[in-house]
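Schema walk-through. Below, the input block comes first and the output block second. Nothing else is stored per chain. Lengths vary across the set, and this one has 150 residues.
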Amino acid sequence: MVLVCTGNTCRSPLAEALLREALVQRGLDGIEVLSAGTGAWEGAPASESAYLVGLERDLDLSGHRARLLTGDLIAPTDLILTMARHHRARVLELIPGARVHLLGEYAGRTGTAAEVADPYGEDLETYRATRDQLAILVTAVAGRIVGGKA
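--- output ---
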């Protein structure tokens, strides 16, 4: 499973860590979860704010390094979840017919509630709100996977 945002330094690393945690809590620690960015600077660390709000939830993003989204990365993937519609469009440019969804839609949201806004450059409260939104969404995704509806 691959989670996709723009820079792979804020939303998708937080979502990756939160989803891993949610899957482990449900006994599904064998599912590979990665993240990537449509415009990532390969090797960049998680943003300082993402790192800090992650620590508040006992998520350690210190080892995270950004990955650029490529066809080779996502070709073998069963499921790709994106933060916004333009990320989904990029995935489909790379791999037409890929099994890709907006994270929010996969979690049962519709309309604008299905997208996760980019907190980059915003204050810690915005990052906390993004982290909390992601936590709700990935909990629903983990539940869907456990329920066999993935």
